[in-house]
Amino acid sequence: MIEVTQLQKVVDQNTLIDIPALNVAAGEITAVAGLSTIHKETFIQLLTGQTAPTAGQIRLAGLVPHIDRALFAQKVGFLPAENGLYDRLTTRQNLEFYCRLYGLPLARATELLAFVGLQDQERVRVQHLAPDLARRLALGRTILHQPQLLILVDPFKNSSPSSAELMTNVLHQQAADGTAILLIADESAALTAIAQTIIIMNQGRLSHSYHPSDQPTPSNLPFKIPARLEGKVALVNPADILYATSDDGRTNLYTTNGLIPTHLTLTELEGRLARSGFFRAHRSYLVNLQHIKEVISYTRDSYTLILDGHQADTAEPIEIPLSKSAARDLRDMLDF
Questions:
Q1: For residues 48 and 65, is the Cβ–Cβ distance under 8 A?
Q2: Is this prediction's pTM over 0.85?
Q3: Burial class of residue 316, CB neighbours in 10 A (0-12, 13-18, 19+)
């Protein structure tokens, strides 16, 4: 379904993409990770036919993207990094608009709302949807016309754990129905949980690939989180981490012994701590559930977590913002 052969894209004498071969058969889920911004944008432009290869070829469901533009939209479902929804329309109106565009019965919108778990949000305008629910709706729009293959860019962007799980189930069902799926995203626990093959790129060139099912998962072995300090590497026990936060691209661990910077991104850290009781309370905060002392609701849509301990050098309690969607997930998780 997806065939890439000797693909190269050269711009101003710089090779931005170099992939000897990449194949995704019907029913398979493959992920491509490790692309920097310019290389990712170029790869997406090649796959969607916005630019032609310098050498080699791409065939998607038998189509050449930059030539068969009209048929491409019929056979391929494309989810960009941004949702591309109509903010002033409701969730139902968004899907019904695309039903008319594809010549589908409006009943298909009802079916998709249920499929992505948004039937109770059908009258809510997109501008008022939580980010993870908007992402679900964007995925629903992408599969609305039952394409033969899917190209999804950062599919779990802004997704809560429950939304990521629902979307993973949706994509597994699509694959079971014979859809070929290509994910383009950063390597993370979410990718390893869904993709049968993960292809790692380096500077736009294919580095290596692996099958997550073949990787050992020594879940019973203790592990620590590395943090690079001056002249040494500290190994931090997850149990000692109160929370982690990301600011201006830097991730810091707040531990019982103070602040420790780490070279890992918050998403990478979330993947490593997935089995250690950590929870994404907010897009910039990862919290150890064992250290949550209180959940405070200031307003209907404003929540805060109070953790054990105090802020460094003060007697003030540690307060962590809790997003509305995360508050709902935490309530379901802890049953309160």
A1: yes
A2: no
A3: exposed
Which of 155, 189, 214 is at the close of a domain?
214
Do 85 and 127 lie in a common domain? yes
DSSP 316: P
Antiparallel, parallel or unpaired: β 197-202 and 180-184:
unpaired
3-state secondary structure 225-279: EEEEECCEEEEECHHHEEEEEEECCEEEEEECCEEEEECCCHHHHHHHCCCCCEE
CATH of the domain at 231: 2.40.50.1020
Q: Model confidence over 253-303: pLDDT tens digits?
A: 988 778 888 888 888 888 778 767 788 888 888 898 888 888 888 776 778
Cα 172 → chain centroid: 15
Q: What angle do CA 318, 298, 270 make, to 5 degrees?
A: 50
- Structural domain span for residue 256: 225-334
